[in-house]
Amino acid sequence: MTMTDDPPALAEPMRDEGVARHPQKRKRVRNPASWVRGGGLSNLIFLAPMLIVFAVFSWGPIVQSVVMSFQKTNLVTPAVFVGFDNFAKVLADPNLGTAIVNTLYFAGLALVFGFPLPIILAVLMSEVKRGKGLYSALAYMPVVIPPVVAVLLWTVFYDASPNGVFNVILGSFGIPPQPWLQSSATAMPSIVIEATWAAAGGSIIIYLAALIGVPPELYDAAEVDGAGIWRKIWHVTLPQLRGVLFIMLILQVIATSQVFLEPYLFTGGGPNNATLTILLLIYRYAFQNSLGGAYGEATALSLMLAIFLGILSFAYFKLTERWSTN
Amino acid sequence: MKSAVKIAIASAAALALAGSLAGCAQGAGGDSGGKLQLRVATFPPGADQAAYDAFATQEKQFEKLHPDIDIIGVEYEWKAPTFAAQLAGGSLPDVFLVPFTDTKTLLENGQLMDVTDEMKSLGYSDKFNPVILNEVKDDKGHIFGFPRQAYANGLHYNRDLFTAAGLDPDKPPTTWDEVRKDAKIISDQTGKAGYATMTKGNTGGWQLTTQSVSRGAVDQTDKDGKVKSTIDNAATKETLQWLSDLRWKDNSMGNNFLLDWSGINKEFAAGNIGMYTSGSDVYTALVRDFGMKPAQYGLTVIPTQGDDAGVLGGGDVAVMSPKIDAAHKKAGITWIDWYYMQKLLDKDAAVADAKALAASDQAVGTPVLPVLDKATYEQDQEWIKPYVNVPLDQMKGFSDGIFDQKPVGESKVQTQPIYALMDNVVQAVLTDQNADIDALLTKVDSDAQALIDGK
């Protein structure tokens, strides 16, 4: 094969566009032969690996899990269709209420602390004249650390003894040692602190990129009008970022609704189910019993969560449609 | 021409992908070079190189005797979360181990190979301790595995911490009151946890049951097939109150109340825990997988109190999947017989096994309970005596006392899910000073009954 054998790769689409722009000049005949000549077959074959991979590893399991939510199965003996039994069982499980409340608590705390923090940091960092790259790198560092490693590190920090890292720091301010992960009251806030630390870097980078897009003339105009830094942030920066803010908010709500890794590794859902989240409950349904878990219940709850998040996202975008565009 | 070349390239890419996917789908095992490949469970991930060296030696010995079988060792650890997935996905080895707690349900579900005829033809089915063999039998008396090791729970203690606290490590506590007193002394003198207990991943329930049984608790009764949860009993309440006192009155349990089996072993091996209860066979893992110094280790029996008191035991069974073919089944039986059983029955095999383990610095002589009758067990202990390398004198409290204790098996119905419920009770008592033990027990009892009824 030589390059001279092949005409420029763009020739075909351009020719197609030409046809599309002047349909009256040459009526396009669509038949299998022209589809193959037009590159349809090779496109399909080029796409095939991706389609197969998605079908096998993504769409297939999704469809299968929907089917499984209506079955009773241990994946070894033949599955039996049980209608909505799995959904009824999940809804009757007292742990579901606990998991929902805990997940909402996590999401709420993460929203209060985790959502504004990256915005504030990004705005402050954008104001810095020198060393901006260094600050960005420092802020992004936690994202680079593998999550499991980060959680194990923080488990050491959260040592509840007076010699634990955080307790020593608190002690130097005269604050008594805290139980951190070892108490129902403080376990969830402790997890939120780590989760915020771990995720803030990614959000900061996105906000920094969005801040670059804010036209400097707006700040100049605000300055001429006598606005100080806070009024500039309130009246220029935040309104200019609103599109990004809305997207980041819904992404955070979705992510916090699916929190799993931190409670699983930090506490296993304890103490006494204080950090049992919806995803952890799904995991428990499926894998806690070594003898073939309640896969039906696990997939039923997964499906309910997916539907809820789908509806929430749709409603959110409908509600914010008017405000999120310039 | 252009189109043909593009199609050719795309087809090649698609074929390569299909090939790699097909490769993923291919099962392991099979035959190679005329030999039958048998995948067998070896050690949990994290075992040291010496353990694999010892296994390699034994593998060679076996393959010399059976040149038509190619043994392939597979890392394996029974873990509640992964076992079901491995079972479903067909990624378990051909020969693997399951604990007594799961055997009954697995065999009832048709997930274990029937080995009744094979065990009979090997000629030692009547040599098993009948209580233990019962763990692997169905209602019709069919046998589904080879019990290979049993253990009783014991009280493990750190001799260095005992010494540092001014206690005599050769005189471990013999009552729960003494355990409490010593835990307080260790905690006050060393700043380490005097006593700790497992709390998560179903192990909290397992150890709560162990400690309650030693005070006479019975967690389940079975009358004419009607199983009743009896977790809400006086002995379990006393155990929880005892734990609460250690935690909140004495402050002798340290600061970590979210410990599972490996978590507590790690802390104990690191010298952060004075005493805890666990299976008597954990010494091997403590030294092999968690780096504990043998000189620090001490083991005694769990204190028992009252006429109904017993010691909770368990163990594991070498089993095979019912999906393997006849040739693999035959090879699997040969392996189980050679690797697990003959060293309990035959002098030469016992000596060869002990020699191979000792040569690689692996534990020989870790206290276990006999799966075969007592006479065979004592004979076996005699054979391996020259190779015993575990500090038996540091385990004297256990070996002297264990045969005087009444062995008790674990509950049979929904064992692990009920242990999971009990995890929460232990966690609540240890993390909430105002935990209402009566209310917690009432709730866990009704939740356990719901699990039993929903089975």
From TrEMBL, chain B:
Lineage: Bacteria, Bacillati, Actinomycetota, Actinomycetes, Micrococcales
Organism: Orlajensenia flava
UniProt superkingdom: Bacteria
PANTHER family: ARABINOSE-BINDING PROTEIN-RELATED, SUGAR-BINDING LIPOPROTEIN
SUPFAM superfamilies, A to Z: Periplasmic binding protein-like II
Signal peptide (residue range): 1-25
Keyword Repressor: no
Alphabetical list of PROSITE patterns matching this protein: PROKAR_LIPOPROTEIN
Protein name: Extracellular solute-binding protein
InterPro entries: Bact_solute-bd_prot1, SBP
Gene3D superfamilies linked: Periplasmic binding protein-like II
Keywords: Signal
